[in-house]
Specification:
Elements lengths: L6 H12 L9 H14 L3 E7 L3 E8 L5 E3 L4 H5 L6 E3 L12 H5 L4 E8 L5 E9 L8 H56 L7 H16 L3 E6 L10 E3 L27 E3 L9 H5 L2 E10 L5 E9 L7 H31 L10 H13 L4 E9 L5 H12 L6 E5 L4 E6 L6 H10 L6 E9 L6 H18 L14 E4 L2 E4 L4 E4 L2 E4 L2 H12 L7 H9 L6 H16 L8 E4 L3 E4 L6
Helix pairs in contact: 2-5, 5-6, 5-8, 6-8, 8-9, 12-14, 13-14, 13-15, 14-15
């Protein structure tokens, strides 16, 4: 029949649990104490026992193995009922142990035990001596010695508890620090993503700036913006984690989005692609988790932002979801902003049939063609030597917009700077310019920079930067009337042991190669075309990216720093040098 434990026994068991020592592995400190006790008292067996509500647990033993015994008829149970040493000279002469319990079962006759008393007065176990031969008992001095040894056992238990407490506290503080650091990092990432919206960034530039931040926080390997309902194509504005070593000539397949079509109204976070149908290509290419966030701009344009995370399936944490959502919202704000600017520019036009746009119109048109994977031709024009009046400007604009199918948009970028975006190839450009030079543009000098997508560039920023750079080279060379299209810049550039593939954005050196971001590739292309020439930050930004803004200096510094770090994997010496007070230059890259 079960007998309920007394309040004192319940409290004693709670105190024992406080030490977290029951059923633990042997420890040298306690083994030494049992060895010392056996040696001092010349007994074959010495044990440190801990007693809970049902069993006796041996923490340390001398002369026998550790283990557990039932409490029934065990002398240690009687020992903890007092604070004094209990001695059984001959168990065969003691009616409680003569024929029952552990003493009789193991042929033991002598027992002496001192209770292990805690600082708050509870006996949680014993230090006991055992012998197969009877003894006369213990003297007062021997009893005091055994009690002292029991006190040493308690000192070790208290020390062990203090160490456990310190370890738990240290672990808790470490976890708290980790959580606080993670929260601070998360706040900084959110702030950085939000602060970028204060700059006049394009969608591509925003993706390139936020991509590394999001990857650091969430371990994503790519983020891509898609027009709603279209196939997921790598030509869309995107950022992918730089891949330093490829198995073949090109980056692995997971850096290119599979041909999956999604049309959704709510965010979808897939934590294990193996449980989602239709993602076999993603899984084969190493993607374990993905997220898709739908966007709708103020004008009603619909897009989807996709995130891919490589490796094993991992849960999207609340912080991950919040950060990915913040980036998607930033993209939506940018898309809506450019839509508004384009509509405003069109509304300000005095003659709607002319549709004279601005820089915002130019970007909006290029971005639209990019998202819809249209072939596009961008022409940048600089006109010198002609009278500057609105009628002449409108005549030029109207003339440039007139073409096969009239799939053209003309923009005025400055007093004498113009651009034309065309989806018809602008094959009649030479004839149009000749007509203008013999008519309303008679006596003028027209210089042209042409870039085509996807032939010359695969994204909006690169296309505009390339056309601007080609126009700038003509102007710096002082060339006159342009009667034919400018030859395209080489797709592959070499400098010493390095080779830059501008189309793939890959730099090779010997048998190694690294992947560059779009901005890094544009900067390196300018430096490789003009080795040893010093470029100021403003001039380098203009040549590489096609424009100079207030934030160009720090952006150039950041991308040059990243470029240097990547080039060090291919060449032992720094190649991009800083010339104090002047800018940057590319030095020799002889075979290492």
């Amino acid at each position: 029949m079960y007998e309920p434990l007394s309040d004192n026994e319940l409290r004693r068991i709670e105190v024992l649990a406080r030490y977290a020592v029951v059923d633990t592995l042997p420890e040298p400190a306690f083994d030494r104490l049992t060895t010392l006790a056996a040696r001092l008292f010349s007994v074959p067996y010495a044990m440190i026992n801990l007693i809970d509500e049902q069993q006796i647990w041996a923490k340390a033993c001398f002369g026998t193995k550790t283990g557990s015994l039932t409490r029934e008829h065990a002398p240690c149970v009687r020992t903890i009922e007092s604070t004094q040493v209990m001695v059984v000279p001959d168990a065969r002469q003691n009616h409680r142990f003569a024929s029952h319990g552990v003493m009789a079962e193991h042929g033991l006759r002598f027992y002496a035990g001192a209770p292990l008393v805690t600082h708050d007065g509870y006996s949680i176990g014993t230090l006991c001596l055992l012998d197969e031969q009877p003894r006369t008992g213990l003297s007062d001095e021997e009893s005091s010695t055994l009690q002292d040894l029991a006190a040493l056992v308690m000192d070790e238990l208290e020390l062990r508890l203090a160490q456990l407490t310190l370890a738990r506290d240290a672990k808790a503080k470490s976890q708290m620090l980790t959580r606080m650091t993670g929260a601070a990092d998360h706040a900084q990432h959110l702030a950085a993503v939000t602060q970028l919206l204060a700059y006049d960034l394009t969608v591509d530039a925003y993706l390139q700036a936020t991509g590394p931040l999001v990857a650091q926080a969430t371990n994503i390997c790519s983020v891509t913006l898609h027009a709603r309902g279209e196939s997921m194509r790598a030509e869309a504005p995107s950022w992918t984690v730089p891949v330093q070593a490829f198995a073949g000539e090109h980056p692995p397949a997971w850096t290119r989005l599979p041909n999956v079509t999604l049309d959704m109204d709510f965010p979808v976070f897939l934590e294990n692609l193996r449980t989602a149908p239709g993602f076999s290509d993603w899984i084969r290419d190493g993607v374990g988790s993905a997220a898709f966030l739908p966007l709708t701009t103020v004008e009603g344009a619909r897009h989807v932002v996709s995130y891919a995370r490589g490796g094993e399936a991992v849960v999207w944490s609340p912080e991950d979801r919040q950060l990915l959502t913040a980036v998607a919202q930033g993209l939506n704000i940018l898309l809506s902003r450019w839509e508004h600017i384009a509509r405003r520019d069109m509304a300000r036009n005095d003659k709607p049939d002319v549709h004279l746009g601005t820089q915002a119109t130019l970007y909006s048109a290029v971005h639209h063609a990019h998202l819809n994977s249209l072939e596009l031709t961008l022409v940048r024009l600089s006109v010198r030597g002609a009278p500057l009046d609105s009628e002449w400007a409108r005549w030029l604009t109207l003339m440039l917009q007139t073409g096969p199918g009239e799939h053209r948009t003309a923009c005025r970028l400055g007093d004498r700077e113009y651009a034309v975006i065309s989806t018809d190839g602008m094959h009649d450009l030479q004839a149009v310019l000749q007509q203008g030079l013999s008519g309303g543009l008679k006596g003028a000098q027209v210089q042209v920079g042409i870039a085509r997508m996807p032939e010359d560039a695969t994204d909006a920023d690169a296309l505009m930067a390339l056309a601007e750079a080609r126009l700038a080279r003509l102007e710096s060379a002082g060339l006159g009337n342009t009667s034919k299209e400018e030859p395209r810049a080489p797709e592959v550039l070499s400098h010493g042991s390095l080779t830059l593939d501008c189309r793939e954005r890959v730099v090779r050196g010997g048998h190694e190669f690294v992947k560059l971001s779009k901005q890094e590739c544009a900067l390196l292309a300018v430096l490789m075309q003009h080795p040893h020439q010093v470029f100021s930050r403003e001039r380098l930004a203009a040549a590489a990216w096609g424009e100079v803004r207030l934030e160009s200096d720090p952006l150039v510094n950041v991308h040059i720093s990243n470029l240097r770090r990547k080039l060090l994997r291919l060449h032992p010496d720094p190649l991009v040098h800083t010339v104090r007070g002047q800018g940057y230059s590319l030095q020799g890259a002889a075979e290492a």
